[in-house]
């Protein structure tokens, strides 16, 4: 019989932080898991390097062009509105707390995630297996759950009715927002309070997993989302190893719930992975790329209400990446012209002839799905122009020629995936090293760190799999994990 799997997704789990923490002896639990299996420091996530998109790719095994979750913040053209899965209190307030809550809790799973893809939870059900999701944002599955408004949210969200149910695996929590047998019998703790985001934290998710272990009720797959590292690292990137040490204590607690690490890995295979990295942002004003300054004389849409007849462009800021959705003829060209002047913009790209046009200053590159040359992940493309723009090159190895990526890993699939996640014109910009985009209502991290871009620092995450050998993956990707899990469990 195959071993049960516990997948721990650590938000902002970065290889260089793990290495430093190991050298300082701060992460015994993670070190133990690494020694009992294989570790990769080159696992590539999808783009934008923002949680909602990554979670959707992890559970479906697809890039966004298939699953449709375009970013943490994106423009829904058919519904003429901005979707925000809760990033930035001001921005959420502008769009409407109820709308954002509904998007994050219901729509992401029930309508935004394409019906043409399946989640790992749905696939396991088909195979007669069971699963659990603790606080994972994308959890579409075989069971239906009613949502609830914990504590004071009953008043704040008085106008919001949760008449629709949300689906998930056999055991499913989103903090205290999902009403279930499991939650009702879960004793209240401080980590469930409003001050701890109603359970959307590491302690809640680890407690929930420990409980399944102690009651001997672990399903075949348990997916556990650990967000605390992200919150803390955004503010204090210099404290990275110490922040990871706190996450490690939670993981140690989980191992101890089995009666120790050896017993834990005897019973289960552990997968520990990150969703994205982070990049330090300069403290100076110039570190923020002021978007409104670029659009003087043009009409930027208000987040609260998009007016396609009079607005020129909808702007969706995903920290170190930004989407620009032109609403009128000529706006795409004008937007590109203006953004190209800013040297703090690293990669500028848009849809063209079924492929992608990329620009930086005078440098140009075009690529499209095709049949001329494979990239190092085996996907076939046609390309024209300057590969050095994206630090890629043609490489010959063992008699075959392929495209090898440098500072922008797996760029073709990732950039194509973001642009083609939704129909209609859209331009993508990423911020140069040390910079992030600034729009008045969205969070800023000057002197801290943020993510969203295609660069290696935002894109490589750590991956540990116990009981596995390094040869299993030469170049692992987040999109490979679903099929790996299914293989292991069947
Ligand atoms: Zn973050």
From TrEMBL:
GO terms for molecular function: hydrolase activity. InterPro entries: Alkaline_phosphatase_core_sf, Phosphodiest/P_Trfase. It comes from Aneurinibacillus thermoaerophilus. This is Alkaline phosphatase family protein. It comes from the Bacteria. Pfam families: Phosphodiest. Gene3D superfamilies: Alkaline Phosphatase, subunit A (3.40.720.10). Signal peptide: none annotated.
């Amino acid at each position: 019989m195959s071993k049960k799997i516990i997948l721990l997704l650590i938000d902002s789990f970065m290889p260089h932080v793990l290495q430093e923490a190991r050298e300082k002896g701060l992460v015994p639990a993670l070190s133990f898991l690494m020694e009992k299996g294989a570790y990769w420091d080159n696992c590539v996530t999808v783009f934008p390097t923002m949680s909602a998109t990554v979670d959707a790719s992890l559970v479906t095994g697809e890039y966004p062009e298939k699953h449709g979750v375009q970013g943490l913040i994106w423009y829904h053209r058919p519904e003429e509105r901005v979707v925000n899965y809760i990033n930035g209190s001001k921005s959420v307030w502008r769009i409407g707390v109820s709308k954002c809550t509904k998007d994050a809790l219901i729509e992401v799973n029930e309508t935004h995630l394409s019906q043409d893809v399946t989640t790992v939870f749905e696939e396991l059900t088909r195979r007669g297996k069971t699963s659990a999701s603790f606080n994972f944002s994308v959890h579409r599955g075989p069971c239906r759950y009613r949502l609830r408004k914990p504590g004071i949210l009953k008043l704040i969200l008085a106008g919001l009715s949760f008449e629709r149910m949300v689906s998930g695996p056999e055991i499913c929590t989103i903090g205290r927002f999902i009403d279930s047998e499991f939650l009702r019998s879960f004793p209240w703790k401080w980590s469930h309070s409003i001050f701890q985001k109603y359970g959307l934290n590491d302690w809640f998710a680890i407690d929930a997993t420990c409980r399944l272990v102690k009651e001997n009720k672990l399903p075949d797959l348990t997916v556990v989302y650990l967000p605390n590292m992200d919150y803390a690292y955004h503010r204090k990137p210099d404290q990275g190893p110490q922040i990871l040490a706190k996450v490690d204590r939670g993981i140690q607690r989980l191992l101890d719930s089995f009666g120790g690490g050896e017993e834990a890995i005897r019973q289960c295979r552990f997968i520990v992975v990150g969703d994205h990295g982070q990049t330090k942002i300069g403290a100076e004003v110039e570190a923020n790329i002021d978007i409104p300054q670029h659009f003087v004389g043009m009409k930027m849409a208000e987040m609260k209400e998009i007016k396609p007849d009079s607005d020129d462009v909808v702007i969706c800021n995903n920290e170190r990446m930004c989407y620009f959705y032109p609403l009128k003829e000529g706006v795409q060209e004008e937007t590109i012209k203006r953004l190209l002047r800013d040297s703090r913009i690293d990669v500028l790209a848009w849809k063209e002839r079924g492929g992608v046009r990329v620009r930086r200053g005078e440098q140009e590159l075009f690529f499209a799905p095709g049949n001329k040359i494979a990239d190092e992940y085996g996907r076939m493309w046609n390309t024209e122009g300057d590969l050095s723009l994206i630090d890629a090159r043609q490489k010959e190895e063992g008699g075959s020629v392929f495209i090898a990526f440098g500072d922008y890993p797996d760029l073709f699939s990732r950039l194509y995936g973001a642009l083609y996640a939704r129909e209609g014109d859209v331009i993508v910009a990423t911020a140069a090293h040390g910079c992030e985009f600034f729009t008045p209502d969205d969070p800023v991290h000057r002197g801290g760190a943020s993510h969203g871009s295609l660069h290696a620092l935002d894109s490589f995450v750590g991956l540990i799999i116990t009981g596995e050998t390094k040869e299993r993956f030469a170049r692992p990707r987040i999109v490979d994990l679903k099929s790996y899990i299914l293989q292991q469990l069947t």
